[in-house]
Amino acid sequence: MFQPESDTMMMLSAVEQGGVCLKPMHRLTSGCTQWQVQIAQIQREHQALKELKLSAQVNYPVVSGNYSELKPLNSIAHLFTAKRLKDAAKLVKKGTSPGIDGQTFEEWELVVDYEAVAHMVRSGKYQPSPNRWAEIPKDKESLRTLGIPIIQDRVVQRAWLLVMEQVFERMFLPCSYGYRPDRNCHQALSGIAQEINAHESVWVLDADFQAYFDSVPHDHLMAFIKKYITDPIFLEFCEHTLLIGRNPNDMDGGVCKGVPQGGVISPLYANLFAHEVLDLYFESEIRPRLDGWSRLFRYADDFVVLTEFPLDAERAFEMIRDRTMHFGLTLHSMKTKLVNMSNPGAHSPVDEHDRRELVFLGYEFSWHQTAMGKWEVVGRTAPGRRQKALERWRQHLEKMRKEFCAGRHGSRRRGTLSIEFQDRLNRSIWFHVTGFGGYYCAEGNQTELILYEEAVFRDAAAFWDQYIDSKGSNPYRGSSERIWTSIRMRSICNLSGSKHNFPTRENPSGMEAG
């Protein structure tokens, strides 16, 4: 699975809305005011980026009616201007990983000629460079291969993305939530909870594509793009980005397949392919053939189908399996399953094995009985996710410890710590605490947030005692309580937009009263 399964990437989307970079703080013990000032600054930067994205949008002329009546664009290269390229450069995160040429964003920014690059793209002479391939852990048993473009290719892709979003967003269906403007995983989770709470009989087909991003055939993807855009310059650019972004092992019987994980434009490619293969097919072919109600929720390559009857879920599975096989995709045999999420008050569990739990996008949905005796679905952190997040935090802290002991940021002796290193440590704590909290701050999930945050500060305090000062005051001991006093749910909710209250029968909108 691609990024939806990664807690880190989803936390990044919760904390760095629109590419906002969190700022370091010199001290963690300066009181609530400094936290509030930082949050206000982040919100201002987030609003500025939203305005920048809106100013860079393209007004796509559409006719009235459904998506099939949209006329394909035969010329969009003229929209690629130097101004749009500059706007795209502002949206690319500074400090991002360099490509195969080793050039950083700051170095590229000093030498780039925006007019020259824009002219090369418009004339069809721009040639993307090969990607740099890197592997990161996917889980304990496998690795994920990333194709990292050079900085200039990243900016050019971002500029094209600003144009493409305005074309394809008109066609994407409401069931798609992944990597789209103003749509996120929390909306998908809230929608799922609302559907389960609203019906007494609910059967869920929980499915996942196997190696989705590595399996997308180029010929089918290009055919889907040509349905909406026929500009030869743009199509040539798409073909080049797909060819240079191929996984080294993506040739299967002479068929080119795969979109690079790590490219700016790759999520849109993946969304378009899933839209044509799954979303439209479900709405036009599968749903009319089912006996009861049904809903599809998809986040990138991860999706669930909610149905009223188990036979409908099985029928949907067979049709989706046959459809995806025709386009070179395979459903993951170990991760695709049928789950009974019917209301226990109306449909009693058959036996002790009928647990009625659904895990999707890092949340576990389960039925709980309130004090008033009513049954409602509650979404909480899925088992093992907090421990995985703590493992990543401790790996990061161990890397910082080795750098500190090597003398890169100060003396080996106790009691000396450079401002640069303390800034990095404070920034890391802020990133991990607010990242985990920004994603998992659902109503009723506060215990998981507090346990995670307390563990992070225990580790930071132990680091201070061991390498800085074991006898003096420790700025990280006791910081846990002060942090949650100032940013507990209110500040984290400000950071990520709103608290994620899952809807119930009594509160169908999922919003807080008042």
Structural commentary:
The structure is a single chain. The protein has 514 residues and is α+β, with helices and mostly antiparallel strands. Helix content is 46%, strand content 10%. The chain has 17 helices and 9 strands. It has a 4-stranded antiparallel beta sheet, with helices on both faces. Helix 3 crosses helix 5 and helix 14 (419-440) crosses helix 17 (490-496). The chain is flat. 35% of the residues are buried. Mean pLDDT is 75; it is low at 1-36, 58-68 and 479-514.
List its salient traits:
alpha+beta; three-stranded antiparallel beta sheet; four-stranded antiparallel beta sheet; 46% helix; 17 helices; disordered C terminus
Give the structure's gist in a few sentences.
With 514 residues, the chain is α+β, with helices and mostly antiparallel strands. It is built from 17 helices and nine strands.
Strand count, sense and closure of the main sheet? 4 strands, antiparallel
Enumerate how many helices there are, as a single number.
17
**How many extended strands?**
9
Output the radius of gyration. Answer: 24 Å
State the oligomer. single chain
* Low-confidence residue ranges: 1-36, 58-68, 479-514
**What distance lies between the first and last C-alpha atoms, to the nearest angstrom?**
40 Å
Give the overall pLDDT as a whole number. 75
Order of helices and strands: HHHHHEEHHEHHHHEEHEEEEHHHHH
Task: Decide which structural class fits the backbone.
Answer: alpha+beta
Question: Order of strands across the biggest sheet?
Answer: 4-5-3-6
Shape, per Cα inertia axes: flat
Share in β-strands: 5-15%
Helix content: 40-55%
